[in-house]
Design a protein that fits this description.
The complex is a heterotetramer, with two copies of chain A and two copies of chain B. By secondary structure, chain A is an alpha/beta fold. Chain B is of the alpha/beta class. Chain B contains twelve helices and 14 strands. Chain B has a seven-stranded mixed sheet with strand order 3-2-4-5-7-6-12, with helices on both faces. A five-stranded mixed sheet of chain B has the order 9-11-10-13-14, sandwiched between helices. A two-stranded antiparallel sheet of chain B has the order 1-8. In chain B, helix 7 links the parallel strand 6 and strand 7. In chain B, helix 1 runs parallel beside helix 7, helix 8 crosses helix 12 and helix 9 crosses helix 10. Chain B is globular. Classes of the chains: A alpha/beta, B alpha/beta. The structure holds thiamine diphosphate (2 copies) and magnesium ion (2 copies).
């Protein structure tokens, strides 16, 4: 495993990771890993600026959601703060035909898929439970039960192979997102078994943000997570998840291997959850401020900004414009969230079965009559 | 041209026809390939349809159902085989938290046409975990439909109807009846088959209603024949669909007879008989001459094989319940 | 010296006392350590009893229960926390196929004194999987005992009695009541506590019997108060034990009142209300003025938070059922 | 991974394994694996003969069980034919204080624990479901649900550590038996996670007999199973499971590491199921005779016999005596199996709950009355 840039320095975990942009904004041309794979990016200035815009935008929208939750407009929110590079890097690495299976935290990936960022807010506001069509957006509904989606992604990927959609550069690939804690779930390990056996065109993208709610990584494993893959017969690689360039390069390569018929890859994106697990959580109970501080120094956005500045790819006016635009999007999002209508009570009976159920229709009818009995009764 | 075949063979024919009619139908499970399943229900199907259509899976039930969900999202119609009733539980999380809920979660935008076949019930002298009746665990779960067949003809038609349905369906197969024969018109059009989610009066009667399903239908019918000799005319209803239950047929019958006895192998406590008794009493309160009585497995784990004869409802226990109903 | 504390704090005190009284008692689960659990039920316990007694586990429910089985074989008394009702299903296989059966399998030679704590029920405005009531899935399983508390005093005593019991016990905690206060005499001797597997008349009455448990007991009591204003004197029974159910108390009450209404959050179909209705009808047939009526969650997946108020039984729906019972 | 003896020859799988006794009976003094561990045995002639006796006895008893099943005296039987060395080698490696968690096939391990071989026959005859006390025999009840016992073993091993019974040569160790198919079960992989995280004193003993009923190994993995361990942070090693010496050496070393506090080991015992999966199975449907033939040449017993003969450790009279004694034991076993009484019907209500249940007592009473109602009625 490559140690990243020679002066990547103290931020490199034991076992190393792929890094193409150091915390202080120094770009590394290319990194070659132990297995001889070389990773690099050649973005135009425009593309670098776009990546920066993505990072700033998803962070700003996330901040707006945190605020909305504090103001009681959302029941709960799972913030991606600190994981922007992992999500934008992997999200932008996806090709249009690729399918993504998120957890409940992949708002940044959703944004990079070109989806209206308001889509998941119904779930967090409590007006629905997702309610979108995974196939329309090539982005599955958020999965809350830890790990369950990794098997869905594996099955979908088996279907891609059965459809003959692998083995060429324009083949389809699948990406399954999950966290460090999820690696302990039996179902996640089963998805490794199946993907290996069926050589499924899938990328397992694990955002190791160091915590499963309050539990630090050592409650899940005593060796680096990327090493889990070898025992199932496919490669595992660790990338600096706060480095959008490296994350992009590593994910793009893994996805292309998958679409070309070379099977699964496990990517461990080494990052940090800067905020609380969710708005219901109080991280001060289980981690110390200095740890959070040390990770501030590895911030994914500031390092890209430093690079853009140093390389004169962008100037202050650009940064200001990006902030302003993101703010406008955030305010627009806020307005639309506030305008979300509450669901009609009777809709709770809808969509239980594609073909319906007479029993349930009776319950719906009784419910409607019962509701009607209160009309005008002041209820 | 009706043929006389076993219930197991009828399922095999039904699966074959489903594979022929829709290239999106895939069968997956442990040992369903070369072996044809431990009960040979998928016998010959992999040979004829290939390893992509009839998939021998890793030994992991959560994996079978979880990947079936992904295949369904991709547009396939997976038919999953769980080898025995007692081995469905590793998949329980995928079934109740995912299969049952994704249509609701997606506001109806996603459909998961998944069929989960489960050989269930006792009476075959097997070791632990091979003789259970877990139907209530699934019938209590909104979002799932649950059906079970009691004879070869129903087996042949119901498995095809289930695969054709866009609802996720738990399909319980009465394993001890796999070898029982019956007439099936294999070439009749599916459209003319008796509806999937409908109960059927298996034997019309006037004096009391016996409700049974799957392996217990035969027991109920035998009990009815025996009762006839004592001049009691029992009506036997084969439920066929356990969720939703086809109540109108049941209510009509019980209003006529005034007495009802429910028979199943699963433990009585919170078994199907509980819901049936509660609903029948709500709807037929003034018609009931006696409370709805239940003949079920006892509230113990399924016992060792040499005790199952005592554990399982049989003709005598059904008649005893009928007697008690009349004696009320 | 009785103290006024919340139900959550009462559980915390009860767990602490159990840890103090028996060095074999260990608490295990996700985030039960430094965080004290997402509901703080284990707050401070790891600090005082150490990481070997209060174990932060890997994120794997099957692992939590499966290793608890091994610890129990070794002589420990594990108290497992499942973080939310909707996350118990990965452990379902270990619970129904192992925890429930090993005593039977070993002919009584092995005892598994395991307590599985599950915060359950809705009303807290949560997202999917955080508001479910899966009690029937466990009550239908022979070999498990199932209990649930409705107030701080019961919470304090019942958790200790459950840990002391050699039976495997599923302990359901009404999460929306964690913050409700009540009087608890923390220093009273456990031996004098109300028995674990007994129902309690929470409010004596004469006109109809309302059966409730866990989070719905408060709703039933409020309904009784409201009914009293209309001159109806409802008896409210807090079941407390769901498997086995303490039927004598229930039958005695219904024989007196002639009417019964069961209230729970779980879907009605095959919920606890089904078995209660069936049993009550069997035992009190000639005393019933009306069928046993059920007020329950509808047979849909638990809906989005902004619909749960309509989904959950409330005072009005209970009164409506009481009215229907009287109108029968 | 050691390739075993230089002339171990064609029977060595890709990736190699530890072998101390070749199929043709040549003993290898010692084998050193890639990680530098050296394996060897120094048995007295007496001990070699005892091992031979064990192998012959467990095979003979197994054959008797197969016959009993064919004659309808057992409902089903899971034969260990071909796996004698894996079970005797590991079983004899256990020290008295060690705890074993078997599947449904470990009759040979049971025998080596000094347990009356009739103990599991109640289960297969259908008169009970095991019915023994795991702690009395340091041998858990047979577990039929694939993989479930690996978590029980892990929890038990955690308890050993909590009891302070590790960290010394007389510490306690735990062994969990499972098959190649079981490695796909989520629960088995979770037991790897837990054992790594808690450094449990456990040996995962996987008998890779090449099949899970009809499914060959490639339906479970595309890389050797012993490699699974690395991703969980503990060593994995493959041993010739038809070589009782190597199996003993490797298992003994792993158990001693565990008892000394060095944590888990995964052992893949590479062997073959010579018979049907169970008496209900028909292997001719899924495997060819030539494959079975090729494994006959690797028979665990004939290779030890060849060694004993060549080294003049035993002569014909010994081999005859062993066969005769085993036969006597088998016939004695048969008699006692035939004499097993059927359980009393009412016992089906016993031992559901340690503390009983009033509800169940009522059902028992009703059952007894109902049974009584048939007295003399010819039923
Ligand atoms: C099966 C299951 N168990 C428990 C939970 C409760 N829970 C929600 S998030 C979480 C921690 C997840 O940690 P990780 O996988 O690292 O993802 P992260 O939240 O850190 O992104 C837990 C335990 C759950 N959602 N599902
Ligand atoms: C959870 C579960 N699923 C399915 C089965 C049915 N079954 C019994 S043995 C077996 C194959 C086991 O193969 P392996 O783990 O290799 O052990 P072996 O029988 O070869 O020793 C299967 C699928 C089971 N017992 N448990
Ligand atoms: Mg995490
Ligand atoms: Mg095997």
């Amino acid at each position: 495993m490559a140690k990243g840039g020679s002066d990547a320095g103290t931020d490199v975990p034991a076992g190393g990771f792929v890094q193409l942009l150091t915390p202080d904004g120094k770009r590394i041309d290319s990194v070659t890993t132990a297995d001889g794979t070389t990773y690099s990016v050649d973005f135009t200035d425009e593309e670098y600026r776009d990546l920066y815009r993505d990072l700033v935008t998803v962070r700003r929208l996330d901040a707006e959601a945190v605020a909305l939750q504090r103001q009681g407009e959302l029941g709960i929110w799972a913030s991606l703060l600190g994981q922007e590079a992992a999500q934008v890097g992997s999200g932008r690495a996806l090709r249009p035909q690729d399918m993504a299976f998120p957890t409940y935290r992949e708002h940044g990936v959703l944004y990079c898929r070109g989806i209206d960022p308001i889509m998941p807010f119904g779930l967090f506001r409590g007006v629905d439970q997702g309610g979108w069509d995974p196939n329309e957006f090539k982005f599955n509904t958020y999965t809350i039960v830890i790990g369950a989606q990794t098997l869905h992604a594996t099955g979908y990927a088996m279907g891609v192979t059965m459809d003959g959609k692998t083995g060429s550069p324009d083949g389809e690939a699948v990406i399954a997102y999950f966290g460090d804690g999820a690696t302990s779930q039996g179902e996640v390990n089963e998805s490794f078994v199946w993907s290996g056996v069926f050589n499924a065109p899938i990328v397992f993208f694990c955002q190791n943000n160091q915590y499963a709610i309050s539990e630090p990584l050592e409650r899940q494993t005593r060796v680096p997570l990327y090493q889990r893959a070898g025992g199932y017969g496919f490669p595992g690689i660790r990338v600096d998840g706060n480095d959008v360039l490296a994350t992009y390069a590593v994910t793009r390569a893994a996805l292309d291997n998958a679409r070309n018929g070379q099977g699964p890859t496990l990517i461990e994106a080494y990052t940090y959850r800067m905020g609380a697990h969710t708005s219901s959580d109080d991280p001060t109970r289980y981690r110390i401020a200095s740890e959070v501080e040390s990770w501030k120094a590895k911030d994914p956005i500031s390092r890209l900004k430093a690079f853009l500045t140093k390389e004169k790819i962008a100037k202050d006016d650009f940064f200001t414009e990006v902030d302003d635009t993101a703010k406008k999007q955030a305010l627009d999002l806020r307005e639309r969230v506030l305008a979300m209508p509450d669901p009609q009570p009777v809709t709770l009976f809808d969509n239980v079965y594609p073909n319906g159920s007479g029993e349930l229709d009776d319950q719906r009818r009784a419910f409607t009559d019962y509701q009607a009995s209160f009309e005008g009764s002041g209820h | 041209m009706a043929e006389t075949i076993t219930l197991g063979k009828a399922l095999n024919h039904g699966l074959r026809r489903a594979l022929e009619n829709d290239s999106k139908v895939v069968i997956m499970g442990e040992d369903v390939g070369k072996l044809g399943g431990v009960f040979r229900i998928t016998d010959g199907l992999q040979k004829d349809f290939g390893e992509d259509r009839v998939i021998d899976t890793p030994l992991a039930e959560a994996g079978i159902i979880g990947t079936a969900v992904g295949l369904a999202i991709r547009g396939y119609r997976p038919v999953c085989e769980i080898q025995f009733d007692g081995f469905v539980f590793p998949a329980y999380n995928q079934i109740v938290a995912q299969v049952a809920k994704m249509h609701y979660r997606s506001k109806g935008k996603l459909r998961l046409p998944i069929v989960i076949r489960i050989p269930y019930g006792g009476g075959i002298g097997a070791v632990e975990h091979h003789s259970e009746s877990p139907e209530a665990y699934f019938a209590h779960t909104p979002g799932l439909k649950v059906v079970t067949c009691s004879n070869p003809a129903d087996a042949y038609w119901m498995i095809q109807q289930s695969i054709l349905s866009d609802d996720p369906i738990i399909f319980f197969e009465p394993k001890r009846r796999y070898w029982e024969k019956g007439e099936v018109d294999l070439s009749a059009p599916l459209s003319e088959a008796f509806p999937l989610h409908a109960a059927r009066v298996a034997r019309p009667g006037t004096d009391a209603t016996v409700l049974a399903y799957g392996p217990m239908v035969r027991v109920a019918l035998d009990a009815a024949s025996a009762a006839a000799e004592d001049g009691r005319n029992l009506e036997v209803i084969d439920l066929r669909t356990l969720s939703p239950v086809d109540y109108p047929v049941i209510f009509e019958s019980v209003r006529r007879t005034g007495r009802a006895v429910v028979v199943h192998e699963a433990p009585g406590n919170l078994g199907m008989g509980a819901e049936l008794a509660a609903r029948i009493t709500e709807e037929c309160f003034y018609s009931l001459e006696a409370p709805v009585l239940r003949v079920a497995g006892y509230d113990t784990p399924y016992p060792a094989a040499r005790l199952e004869e005592e554990y399982l409802p049989d003709l005598d226990r059904v008649l005893d319940a009928v007697d008690r109903s009349f004696g009320w």
